[in-house]
Specification:
It is built from 28 helices and 2 strands. A hairpin with a 2-residue loop joins β1 and β2. The longest helix has 33 residues. The two termini are 28 Å apart. InterPro entries: GLUT, MFS_dom, MFS_sugar_transport-like, MFS_trans_sf, Sugar/inositol_transpt, Sugar_transporter_CS. It is found in: Membrane. It holds the Pfam family Sugar_tr.
Length: 529
């Protein structure tokens, strides 16, 4: 009877904790500012090159003719343009590789702030390329901008996952995806003929990159660093407590500090793990495989192919050529609304249903789109069905696969493993991005409208794997998530500690005396356990 009462008391206490979770001003400011100068710019640079493509190709041709006295041939022009578009992924791969030592040394927040140097440099190179008469500056700027994106798409989810309470970790993590979508939509809007989509104004499309970068560089330094980074890696208890207090909007953060210390007792030390060491760690084997699968499917599921077909399908539907840029805004709007919807429901529905369900819906709509594109010349209303399928595929992607992979990467790994894990995730992400850009033209040429069945197959493979392997991580600590994977990894947490941290078997009392402190009446004091 007494045990039952204690159990009920614990459940009530957990519910009370959940009810107290709120979005503090610092938490909102950090997430919005961090995303605006990071994932927003990634999305913006995905779409910004589409509107001025014709003008940029003309600039390439004129520059070539001025230098060499003859016009560039069509093959070389196509090659130059392909390099301009795809080189962004190469820069992203470089950024993903170098992010690990940067976030270890500078921290999560400072990495995001310093990363704006790349954004500003890229904006200046690209916006001044027309004035300087150098298309090489535009290509170089795309590489530098890719480095910025590669760093930010690892550092930002890492930062957001470490500053948010577990009760809203998924919703806050979706901020990354939401701002990617807003960036895509912004690039479409600014590329309209009435704004910067004109021959004399296209450099302003790239110069606009400076604005989010400077806003982030000015505001983010006044917000706290990740408290987990401060506590577990810098061993600065005082600053960690203050960071927790600002992010959570309350004075008593002893419960949150104890949760972090529980992780430190499991990992026994805070020595950062390298990528090679992480790959050799049996206890996270299936977590790594799951991250690779989700990140690979994120890029290979066919959304880039959808963007390729959009204008053609709109044209086939009878929409006038000059009207298509305005109609295309509907794709960016649907993308943004779906991402916002996912952020609102992720803590209610969980990661599994949204991720698996998103891939499942994409399979259905890819199949219907294949049929409608194949038969659209025989039935007059089928092009409208194709338009619906395009919007439905975009919405299905953004509901789950478009943002949850970044959330999962932050949730699967403990503090010492997280930078290496994000480096692996980022590498897979950018390599897959480059592979799609390189191979899709050949797939499309060979299979025509049936190319979407390839992407449906990839979505099916990803959904099947996740159905059997992925546990629900909603409202769970790292320790609980590790337990969910322990059976599949064929290792217990006790075995993990003995295997990976021999000689570091400090007692709980010693660990807590090094790190644990609580706030009482505004004074910081050691906690005796």
């Amino acid at each position: 009877m007494e045990n039952k009462q204690q159990s009920n008391g614990v459940m009530k206490e957990k519910k009370a904790v959940k009810k107290k979770v709120n979005w503090s001003g610092s938490l909102i400011a950090a997430s919005l500012t961090g995303a605006f100068g990071s994932s927003f710019l990634y999305g913006y640079n995905l779409s910004v090159v589409n509107a001025p493509a014709g003008y940029i190709k003309k600039f390439y041709n004129e520059t070539w003719e001025r230098r060499y006295g003859f016009s560039v041939d069509e093959g070389t022009l196509t090659l130059l343009w392909s390099i301009t578009v795809s080189i962004f992924a190469i820069g992203g791969l470089v950024g993903a590789i170098i992010v690990t030592p940067i976030v270890k040394f500078f921290g999560r927040k400072c990495t995001l702030v310093l990363n704006n140097v790349f954004a500003v440099a890229a904006a200046l190179l690209m916006s001044l390329s027309l004035l300087a008469g150098s298309f090489e500056m535009l290509i170089l700027g795309r590489i530098v901008m890719g480095v910025d994106a590669g760093i930010s798409l690892s550092a930002l989810p890492m930062y957001l996952s470490e500053i948010s309470p577990k009760e809203i970790r998924g919703s806050l993590g979706q901020v990354t995806a939401i701002f990617i979508c807003i960036g895509v939509l912004t690039g479409q809007v600014l590329g309209l003929p009435e704004i910067f989509g004109q021959e004399s104004r296209w450099p302003f499309l790239f110069g606009a990159i400076i604005v989010p970068a400077l806003i982030q560089a000015v505001i983010l330094p006044f917000l706290p660093e990740s408290p987990r980074y401060l506590l577990l890696e810098k061993h600065n208890t005082s600053k960690a407590e203050k960071a927790f207090q600002r992010f959570l909007g309350k004075d008593d953060v002893s419960h949150e500090i104890e949760e972090v210390l529980a992780e430190s007792r499991v990992q026994r030390n805070t020595k950062m793990v390298s990528v090679v060491e992480l790959l050799r760690t049996r206890a996270v084997r299936w977590q790594i495989v799951t991250v690779v699968v989700t990140m690979g499917c994120y890029q290979l599921c066919g959304l880039n192919a959808i963007w390729y077909y959009t204008n053609n399908i709109f044209s086939e539907s009878g929409i006038k050529h000059e009207t298509i840029p305005y109609v295309t805004l509907s794709t960016g709007a649907v993308e943004t609304l779906a991402a916002v919807f996912s952020g609102l429901v992720i803590e209610r529905l969980g990661r599994r249903p949204l991720l698996i369900g998103g891939f499942g819906l994409m399979i259905v709509f890819f199949s219907v789109l294949t049929v409608s594109l194949t038969l659209q010349n025989t039935v007059h209303w089928l092009p409208y069905l194709s338009i619906f399928c395009i919007l439905a595929i975009i919405a299905s992607f953004c509901i789950g696969p478009g943002g949850i992979p970044f959330v999962l990467t932050g949730e699967f790994f403990q503090q010492s493993q997280r930078p290496a894990a994000f480096m692996i995730a980022g590498t897979v992400n950018w390599l897959s991005n480059f592979a799609v850009g390189l191979l899709f033209p050949f797939i499309q040429a060979g299979l025509q409208t049936y190319c979407f069945l390839v992407f449906a197959g990839i979505c099916f493979a990803g959904a099947t794997y996740l159905f059997f392997v992925l546990p629900e991580t909603k409202n769970k600590t790292f320790h609980e998530i590790s337990q969910a994977f322990a059976k599949r990894n064929k290792i217990t947490l006790e075995m993990q500690e003995m295997k990976h941290y021999p000689g570091e078997r400090k007692s709980s009392e010693e660990q807590e005396s090094n790190f644990t402190s609580s706030v009482d009446n505004g004074e910081t004091k050691k906690e005796i356990v």
